[in-house]
Amino acid sequence: EKIIEELKLRYERNPFKSRDEVLDVLKAIILSILEKSKSRDFVEELCVLRLRKKPVTVVFLGINGVGKTTTIAKIAKKLRDHGLKVVLSAADTYRAGAQEQIEYHAKKLGLPVIKHRYGSDPAAVAFDTVRYAEKHGYDVVLIDTAGRMHTDIDLVNELKKIIRVVEPDFKTLVVDALTGNDAIDQARMFNEHIGVDNIVIAKMDADVKGGVALSLAYELQKPIIYVGTGQRYEDLEPFAPKKIVSLILG
Ligand SMILES: Nc1nc2c(ncn2[C@@H]2O[C@H](COP(=O)(O)OP(=O)(O)OP(=O)(O)O)[C@@H](O)[C@H]2O)c(=O)[nH]1
Ligand SMILES: [Mg+2]
Hints:
- By secondary structure, this protein is of the alpha/beta class.
- About 50% of the residues lie in helices and about 15% in strands.
- Strands 3-2-4-1-5-6-7-8 form an 8-stranded mixed beta sheet, sandwiched between helices.
- It starts with a helix and ends with a helix.
C-alpha cells in the first residue's frame, strides 16, 4: 500500500531498535491519519444544528449498491430513537424497486416517506419532502438518491439539481468497503463534482483490512461518521480509528 510505503520511508532516517518499535511507530502514524477523520457523533451534530434550523436536511450520495438506502434506514432509526421527527425522501425514482425498498424501511420504523412516480424528477421529490417537513414540524429530512455508475454524467447532473433545490446541510457519501480502491476513486469523483461533507463506510463487516478507511482519511480528510457492520438496523457503528489500526496491522 502506497501510504504505508511512504510512512516507512519517512522513518528510515531513524534506525529502529526492534521490530516492535517499528510497529509502534507505524501504528502511531496510521492512527494520526485516521484521527483526522474521526467525527463527533452525527446524531448529536444534527441535534445541535436542529436548534438553529428546522428541518435539517441530509442527501445521501454514492454509486449503485454501496448501501445508501440501508444506511439511511439505520441512521433514521438512530435519530428516531433519539426523539427526533424524521421523514424519508424517495428521490431514487430510477431503479426498479427502490421506492418499495425505502417504503419497507419507513413502515418498519414508523416513519413517513415522500415519493412520486418512477421516472419523475428526483429534485421535485426532495423539494416536496422538505416542504412536507416544514409544514408538519419534522426535524430531519433524509434523502435517498439513485446509484448508477460514477461515470454517469446524468447522475451527476441529477444530484447537482437536487442539491441546488434543497441546499442540504450535509452531503453524505456512502462507499462500500469491499470495493477497495474503487471507493477512493468514487470519493474523489463525488467530492470534485458534487462536494462531500462526510462519509459512511458500509460493509465493514465483510472480511476487509481497513485500508479503505485509511486511504479515505488520507485523501479526503473528511469526517467518517459511521461504518456499516451488517444488514440489521443496529449494525452502524461510530468510526473508531483504533479498531481500524488493528484491522490494518493485525
Ligand atoms: N453486510 C453488509 N451488507 C450491507 C451493509 N450495508 C448495506 N448492505 C447490503 O448491501 C446491499 C445493497 O444495499 P442498498 O442499501 O440497497 O444499496 P444502495 O446504495 O441503496 O443501492 P442502489 O439503490 O441500487 O443504488 C443490500 O443487500 C444491503 O443489505 C453493511 O454494512 N454490511
Ligand atoms: Mg438505494
